[in-house]
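User: Fold this; tokens only.

Assistant: Input:
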Amino acid sequence: MHLLPTQAEDLLASPQAEDLGQTPADCVLLSFSDSDLSSVAAAYHALGDVPWRPTLRLANLMRLGHPLSVDLYVEAVISRARLVVLRLNGGTGYWRYGLEQVAQTCKARGIPLAVLPGEAKADPGLDAAGTVDQTAARRLWRCFVEGGPENTARFLAETAHLLGRQPPATLLAGEPTPLPRYGRHETWRAPIPVEGPPAALVFYRSHLQAGNLAPLHALADALARRGLAPRLYYVASLKEGPAAQWLAAELAALRPAVVLNATGFSARQGPEDSSPLDAPGVPVLQAVLSTGTEALWEKARAGLGPADLAMTVVLPEMDGRLQGPAIAFKAAADWDPALEYAPTLSRPRADRVDALADKAAAWARLAATPPAERRVALVLSDYPARGGTGLALGLDTPASTLAMLAALAGAGYGVAGMPTDGAALMSALRRPLDGDAPGLSLGDYARLMDPAALAAITDQWGPPEADPLARGGALRFRVQPCGNLLVAVQPSRGQGVLDSAAHHDPDTPPSHGYAAFHLWLRHVVDIHALVQVGAHGTLEWLPGKAVALSADCWPERLAGPLPVLYPYIVSNPGEGVQARRRLGAVLVGHLPPPPVPAGLHGDLAALEQALDEYAQAQSLDPRRLPTLRARIRDLAWEAGVTRDLNLPADLVTGDLPDEALARLDAHLCDIKEMQIRDGLHVFGATLDDGAQAAFLAAMARFPRRDRPALTEALARDLGLGGTLEDLFTGDAAPPGPIPCRLC
């Protein structure tokens, strides 16, 4: 398996000690949520300079992650406050030291402390840390849960009341006014008239509560400029049953061309549940609203920090969402001297917003184009150092490519001139390149290629006209036209025969021919989608960020917003995830070839036979033992097993001790039972009965963690010796008659 290397960066750095420099105030509000703090700041100023309004300090707990930061803040601000409100996400464990110090100080000085859950669900574990009456604490919490300007103003009135002031009775009457947990956001207006297909945009209710909608409105504007008609929806959480059911019904009725999701995490309640985002049965693109700054993102190869990676990449991809770029980053607004706080807002980055909108428009274009008119490229990899054209892990690529073409033809795609068999296809793709082969002229290549990227390739590989694919003023490619579809060989990303390390090089730009090939597909052939046939190509391994790519990352430079579909072996998810995260690819899993036991052959088979004879001779004919030991020694040396296991031997005779013979026997058993692939899988082909049985037997043969293998567990339940496999292969005799249920 290959992993994109990352380096220790500021994104991954531990919290640093800092002094927030705040002075004391009547009330202190601490929260992990910028939305909480921004909405309270807005409500504070909306009240005006009324006499009952307390002085207030706001601080984000992310800035108090270091113990020294906590100590400084507690001494300078908390210890002199008259009321402290602490809102914690995830319980006590997320800010344990800080909670302990704040609670200890407030208790020692008699300062009222309210510790509130950061979620819409009560957390009894936090109640014991607070000193404010539970009824009053619950009212404060409800103000945040319901959200909105009215409830935020009520929160300030509640804090004033706890401080002994006299806010208007109207602000304290009744219960906090509920803001709907989900709904349509209908205040956005399209910048231009739009008559195209709808596109759904789903985001968190907290953005609405805080009024921090700029990234979402910017994305909606970009979608409208591309002919899509955005419909905006907000939810408190996709895991809240009523919200999920409502949104699923809304999306199913809307029938959008594409869904864009700006919420985090997985939306499934369990492995068997579906996400409400999947209700319309269209692609779901994940928009990332980063909690980091734009400056950190720009210089970080990792792209996102651990929290963003988990919330907006890893967990959403469990639902099958297609990864999009980071469209917004946190930035501090102007310093507020009254609160001694600079609100942190999520601000859109225009080129990343456009990149996501382009990707949404590309998927919508694919859906809107009739199958007979869709242009699709089926691309085979080229690994000369490991077997050549079409090499893919566990996949018969020539047969699979023809099977895909046949399936697409059956679905109404414009397939014509399909090769008769795999050999004919590979022969066509291996024809020597000449001046008549399809290609991109050197002039068009220079026009389409980003100047900085062109310069980087030239510095590495020389001028375009010196590229191995240059013929007759163009960079030419190995292509087999099949009507509106084509089959092509992805050029080498370098020059000459490349080894595996070069194919996965995170620093070296691709060759001119490689870059030109992908530009030709997008801008000359104007394909609607690219199908990378088998694991794996090299596009997802080009230099750039690991996730949340920029316009300067090579996968985006070459693939752009193109929809990518990727038949990929299911047993290699670690590499497949790179295509999902760096190309936004749809991975279509295929089975590996049926596994079979490796068995023993040649010298190893002879060695096993000698060991078996030695075991029998120990009781039946001890006189043969010296001869057999010598034979075992010689065979082990000839087969290289002695060196592999670093077996000890007598320095004079070279004989192997009994302990070495036992290790040798165990090693041969491991090799014999090792699972190897039997042939290659053909995409879409159903396994025959024998292959299915072999597959199931292989799965049942291995233990899982602390559980025995299925065959062993069944044998134990039936009172048999060994395993069921031993029984039916004749390697072990049953203790009695075979149970009738197995006959």
